[in-house]
Known about the structure:
The chain is α+β, with helices and mostly antiparallel strands. The chain is 24% helix and 33% strand. It is elongated, with a radius of gyration of 21 Å.
Amino acid sequence: MALSGFERRLEKFVEGAFSKAFRSGLQPIEVGRRIAREMNSGRTIGLRGPVVPNHFLVLLSREDTARFESFAKALAQELKVAACDHASDEQYHFLGPVTVELAEDLKKRKGNFEVVATIEESKLPPAAQFRLPDGTRVAVGELITIGRTPECDITLTDQKTSRVHAEVRFVPGGHLLVDLASTNGTLVNSTLVKEHLLVDGDTITIGNANLYYEVDR
């Protein structure tokens, strides 16, 4: 069976700088698969589609904790990105930032592990910004307006832009782009949208201007 995107990513991680550490014993791909399984089994129905766990506590044996210790931060980051890749593949949504934590469980034997997955709603907007066509960056907080009038937080002079064209508001899970019944519409990654939960790298097109949504890492 072909490997999914997250499995390919973890295989590349294993084949990289930490290849010697994973010649035997518990493998990151096993943990990644368990995280994906917990996401699948823990999904619930939200307003914009399936909502899945976003916090993952990986409980490891003392031996495996010691073996992973020197690269635990890098491994947690790879597992986090793998979880995001799986969510993207399955069109899942999160209610908060994705976090992966590795912890020791004295009850676990070498090679055995457990993933405790929970949905944790974010109470603060993610640290994000719009990169404008001229290179200017505008921070995105709880609410930001985009339009042709000077009163908007981001002012675009293009006549194809409505006076108050769209807004971006913080909702559980991130920043929601909302088209405010504009004349010419709002596109995200070349697709016309009324509402869209933004993710890092999205390109928002309003009139002839492209705005790039970037999450601080």
